[in-house]
Design brief:
mainly alpha, two-stranded antiparallel ribbon, 44% helix
């Protein structure tokens, strides 16, 4: 799944998670992750994959987004 975008529009439903740092000795300040949007074709692919594998949509989205972020991190180096 490489059809993700870093940008989101106002009409899209955005989902941001709080990330708590793992370092001890500092104040835990939540940070917001980047928002992404998925195009309709990629979303349909995830739904088909969900139906074929029986995995949850949450798991499939998590794996897809993790792969996207990994690609972006490697690209930025």
């Amino acid at each position: 799944m490489s059809r993700f975008s870093r940008y989101s529009s106002e009409e899209e439903n955005l989902h941001q998670r709080r990330v708590v740092p793992k370092t001890r000795g500092t104040a835990d300040r939540p940070q917001l992750e980047k928002s992404i949007k998925i195009d309709l074709e990629s979303y349909q692919h995830l739904i088909d994959l969900k139906d074929r594998t029986g995995l949850s949509m949450k798991h499939l989205l998590h794996e897809s987004v993790a792969g996207y972020y990994e690609q972006e991190t490697e690209h930025d180096r």
